[in-house]
User: Fold this.
Amino acid sequence: MDGLLRVHWKQWSALGVASQILPEENRIIDLEPLIASTQAIGAHDRRLLLSATEWIERNDARVNHSRLHRIQRMFSMQRQGDGEENALPVVAETVPGSVQERRSQYRRQSEKIADFFVRYPSHLQFRLRGLLGITASADVLLYLLIFDGGNSNAIAEEICHDQKNVYRILEQWAKTGIVKKAGKRKDGASSLHAYHLIGKQRWGDIFEYIDVSTQKCNYPNLHNWRRTFLALDRLAEALSDSRLTGDEYLMSTHFRDIHPIFDAIGTEGKIDVPSPKRFQGSEYFAPFALAMIRIVEWLSSPKIPSD
Assistant:
């Protein structure tokens, strides 16, 4: 559990929350998945939850609330909850103690939270939102800066926004010369147009992400944190369930269920997540657990290993 919490602390540290964990500088921080995941895992670290709550209260205008609610619903559905999607500051009201005690806790946490300034490469989402507002447009542009285009379905799925809204944004940008609209693929693999950002090099100049030695764009890594945090939440639930932790066979069964999502994460980090087909019964526990340790270490590492 400590490793899962460290992944969260690393990102909050980069947002100005006092921590002994080094801040995340190399992977782009995706704010709404971070909030939703902190809300879910906060029961295991009271200071993390209180610190995040205070940060949200100070920086509420930076949050895309419609996107946050969409992601919170994903966590609720995964946990088979009752579908309530309380914002993170409301969750903090469940912390035991009187109103005066909670206010005192918040005051103590406030002293540990610095004013947030956009300064790390990992803050690219905040820079784009400063330019385009707290809208889907900022996240669409973020996707197009990092990746070599895509259709509206693929982009909407990756950035967790409404597909119709993403389509309207891309169509408007195509009409104004911001993106190039590619023709539909002839092989029938996709029935949707792909969109590519025009002048990516110039965008890199504007945001100062040009590598001086190569004169090429050197953007930070855009990791799918929504997918990863949902996966880590399933792992956290298992680790906090005494019925599973005391039985390697039951835990191995759970590991088999969550293998596909962690296999995708492991592929990105060049970490082998063993297939459950290679092991019988409780034999799967140790190799999968080792892979999980490596993934968590990779997610919380100071630097992203180069290719």
Observations:
- The CA atoms of residues 66 and 143 lie 19 Å apart.
- The chain has three domains: 2-110, 122-217, 241-299.
- The first strand starts at residue 150 and ends at 151.
